[in-house]
Amino acid sequence: MKKYIWLLTTNLFISAFTFGGGYIVVPMVRQFFVIKKQCFTEEDLINMAAVAQSTPGAIAINLSALAGYKVAGIAGALISCFAAVIPPLVILTFVSAFYKVFVSNAYITAILKGMEAGVAALMVDLIIDMCSMILKKRSIFLTAMVPLAFIANFVLGINVAVILFVCCMLCILQVFYKKRKEK
Prior knowledge:
The chain is mainly alpha-helical. Helices cover 85% and strands 0% of the residues.
């Protein structure tokens, strides 16, 4: 029971304070599940983030469900999903009810700009963590993929979805190549 309450409160907290969802959730999940409670490893987290991103639905909810499942099975996944949905639902209901007040308030606009800066900092932290994990693998293939993907998007203007698809296909081909080489 204690595990379920911890999952509920932790996921409520993460969801409430990661406004915008997406990959912003990953550093928070890392902080609570990997660093504080050691429920799983950083490599597990990166794998779960990849699965969460590639499955239908919101990344934040998918990642919460995967983390909950890893900690407490099906019940953990359900509790984590519920906890991940409630804060945005409450916040969006409140904001939509008072939209005209929010849109014209300079203080709220400033708060949202500050939140954008916080989100950017979390994204940079996540990118640094992911790159350090890639470098630990000592794979020239994976190490080269990071700057090439950046150049493809930032310099050449290739759509991110296309880049992700190509990177996924290359990684799948590499796995098949390694398995075939082992046999």
